[in-house]
Amino acid sequence: MTTTRPQTGDETGAQTGGPAGAPTSFGARLHAALADRGQLCAGIDPHAGLLAEWGLPDDVGGLERFAMTAVEAVAGEASVVKPQSAFYERFGSRGVAVLERVVATAREAGALVLLDVKRGDIGSTSQAYADAYLDPASPLAADAITASPYLGFGSLDPMIESARRHCAGVFVLALTSNKEGPEVQHARAVGPEPGAPDGRSVAGVVLDHLRALNAGVQPLGSFGAVVGATIGETTEDLAFNGPVLAPGYGAQGGTPADLRRIFGASAHAVLASTSRDLLRHGPDPVALRDAVRRGNDELADALADGADA
């Protein structure tokens, strides 16, 4: 089953097109989902180690049992479900078919789907990625995707424009948790004159682009940043009127206190992403659902007054 999104409205503000003018931009849908279902983002990443922990074979049958058990258990509780595409693609076309079912099942249960693909290319190839993941006509269409800006932020224009057209979202890599990230993300950008630095870090340039894309949008912009929950201290301005995907939460060491410290007044727009810490509770669907509920309660307690931090 392929679901579709309304495609009408003002691209610069809260888009409309649903019943009684209900907001339908991704930012507006996410803002409502966070208020209704909490800030835990449920990653569904069926890597070989987790399949083994669940007692499943590392084949497409094991993939299907794992992924469908997980999504059916958590999608009715989580605001956002985030499948990592690579763990499905490794099984070829049959694995991608399972991913299509995961996307459809999550959306039928009322969760938003953030498809973690981290695509980044130029021109017609970038547009093809946008068509694959953001166009409602595609069986892989999600509410939002992750994207890499390291061919230049302008290379993402086809994805940005497609997201606007289809009321979808894009989360752009900015300050990731992996140890290799700083060699690119902390590097100083070059200004208009060849070889002349403009003073900003590469991550700062990415955040400034997002700030411009989300300017004036209410209640929340549709263009987000990926900022790790374990980055430690940063001098970057993380207030850009858009959502934040914070991987590294849970098993990788990120805590609610880290989120509040890193994001401060922007903590209300953070999606705390967890996969291993959540999925280790499977294959029991009740335990998976309870883990989502506990995670949301912990985040609510820690971040409710984050604006005062």
Automatic annotation (TrEMBL):
It comes from the Bacteria. Pathway: Pyrimidine metabolism; UMP biosynthesis via de novo pathway; UMP from orotate: step 2/2. Its EC number is 4.1.1.23. It catalyses: orotidine 5'-phosphate + H(+) = UMP + CO2. Residues 39-291 form the Orotidine 5'-phosphate decarboxylase domain. Residues 1-25 are annotated as: Disordered. Signal peptide: none annotated. It holds the Pfam family OMPdecase. GO terms for molecular function: orotidine-5'-phosphate decarboxylase activity. Residues 1-10 have a biased composition (Polar residues). The active site is at K118 (proton donor). Keywords: Decarboxylase, Lyase, Pyrimidine biosynthesis. Belongs to the OMP decarboxylase family. Type 2 subfamily. This is Orotidine 5'-phosphate decarboxylase. The gene is pyrF.
